[in-house]
Structure formats: C-alpha cells, structure tokens
C-alpha cells in the first residue's frame, strides 16, 4: 500500500505502459529532488510567474514562487519578458523547485536588436541552460506546423501563444523557417549534455473553446510528435504543451490524440479553460478542466488565476488558484489511478472525529489547522455543522448499543 501522505509515489498501473514515458525533470546543474513527470506519477501543478516590465518586480514574483514552493508546487515557469535573468537565477539558487523558462522571449528581443535569428537562438538557449534551468520551453512547431493563413484566420482567436507569435514574426522578417527548427539538433546536443528537458510549446493551441481541435492545431500536435521522437532518439526528455481552451467533452479526445502521436511524451495543459465566459473566475473554469484532463492522463497543468484574461495575478489570487488546482488534480488522479488510499484514511479519521489526523491528511494542512484551532475541536468532538444531530455520533451510539445487546444475549 502506498503511503497516504505521499502523493508523488508512482501508481501501480496508469495510462498505457507500452508507450508512456516517465522521468524526473532535473538538470545536472541543479541540486534539487526534481519534478517527477509522466503517467507513472500524479499530475504536476506548474505555477507561472514572471516579470512584465512596468507591471511587476523581481521581489513580487519571487515571493509568489516562494509561497508556491511552500504549498508543495514542484515546478515553476518563469515567463519574464524583461530580458532580466535575475528572477530565474534567484529561484534556482534559493528554492527546491524545478525551473522552466521560455527562451523565445529573449530570442525575440535579441533579434529585434539586430542579432541573427540563428545566433540569438543558440546563444539564448545556451545561456538559460548554463544558468542551470531544468526545462526550456521552445516554440519549434509554429511556422512549420501547417499554421497556414487560411487555417489561422478561420479561427476566432488566430494565435494565443505569445512565444509562438514572436517566432512567427521572426520568420516573417527573415523569410526563413522556424528559428528553433533550423538549429533543433544543436539544441538537443546542448540539452543532452546538461540533462535539461525540452517542453514543446504550442503556437496553435486553442484560445477559444470554439477553436478546439482545429486543423492547424491537430497538424501541430503531429509535428510535436515528430520532434519528440527526434529528441528521444538523442536521449533528451520531452514534455508537450497540449491544450488551452477546450470544452469538457473534447478533453478526452485531445488526450487520446496525444497518447497516439507524441511518442509517449508526457503532455500538459494551460488549465484547460472549459468555457470562455468565466471572466473574473477563470480559476474555476480552469480547475474544472484540470480535473477532467488529469482524469484522462494529462501529466502537468499550468494553473490559471481568476483574472487570467484581464490582469496579472496578485499574490493572493495566485495562492487561491494553487489551492484550487491542487484539489482538482487530486480528484483527477483518483479517477485516473483508482488510488483512494488517502481519501479512505481521511474518511476513517472523519468517522472517528479525529481532528488532528484530519489536519494531517488534508491537502492543505495549514488551512485545516486554522479551522480546527479556531473552533477548538478535540478528538471525538462533533463539528458545528450538525452539532448534536451528527450522524456519525448517532450511528456510533447505535452500533455500540447493538454490540452491548449481543453481549447480553450471549
């Protein structure tokens, strides 16, 4: 039996054992436990932080990453567009989390400043890897993935990927193919030597539930599968960013497609948002999608905040989102793995009104401890929801009375 307090233990049976790959995201230059990724492990929550010039600061974003690590998050993605490496270097030095970065933003900045696309791509990737990051996100399938004008313009939101739009802009200016694709083998060499995983981003991921499973996105997923195979042949671990906005009934279809064409690479989602009309409550939309995606074998989820489509999240908004998504992913893992160990232990503690044990088993012990302490509950005490009408107490008393009757009759 697995330890009911350790959600990172492998499942006895999950997904397709013939094709699914599992590994730990951790570079050779980063002294951490790492982030276990793949169908053998519960899905990971990925928290996105980053510097947007004029909107936030290194201190503010580092505080978010620090609190995410305290809440048990194992991987943090730095999406800074400032060109400043301070945040990622501070996280790498100070926090026990795997760090994923997006070189595309720095490449685009360097290209606009006059550097060639090839030189900028290799230089920036080498710089991120040299810093010790554990995973780099590259937009290698946009321009060459069949994202043709007629397919893109037929979608409600043509391109929702910030990095993908930047790579496409570079290609438009140079008249050359995707800047990552041109040096993909060299990037693989860099990553293989440093034990860095590659995250294949999706330029054509749907930004509206109406655009889910568009022809351009399906084409790109197949292209991601081709690059995943090339990376695997060179000994480089790969994760694939799969979904963005997807209605509930299409999430399973996306996951089936991913298992079919991605050479066993773990795949993930941003949310996914299951409706486009939850403005101000995108964390709820995303958590619903995350539970369903995890149920169908999605290995990592980037959590969405309440204002995902309107503003940078505050510290408190991000923390609420993390807690909600952790609940959603646990629910999805139960459905995927069938592992009810921790929940059964919680139910036994609840049946005994064992408050300390309930705190210990909860997903967020700090929150549970505050509730128990404020109420002054002790072992055996009923809660204020039912009070003296507590069915647990009534049933327990009836069971004890029946036992006494049997003893007397015997």
TrEMBL record:
Cleavable signal peptide: none
Top-level taxon: Bacteria
Species for this entry: Streptomyces populi
GO BP annotations, alphabetical order: thiamine biosynthetic process
Stored InterPro entries: Metal_Hydrolase, ThiC/Bza_core_dom, ThiC/BzaA/B
Cofactor(s) this protein requires: [4Fe-4S] cluster
GO molecular function: 4 iron, 4 sulfur cluster binding; lyase activity; metal ion binding
Keyword Metal-binding assigned: yes
Protein name in UniProt: Phosphomethylpyrimidine synthase
Keywords: 4Fe-4S, Iron, Iron-sulfur, Lyase, Metal-binding, S-adenosyl-L-methionine, Zinc
Pfam families noted in UniProt: ThiC_Rad_SAM
Region (Disordered): 1-20
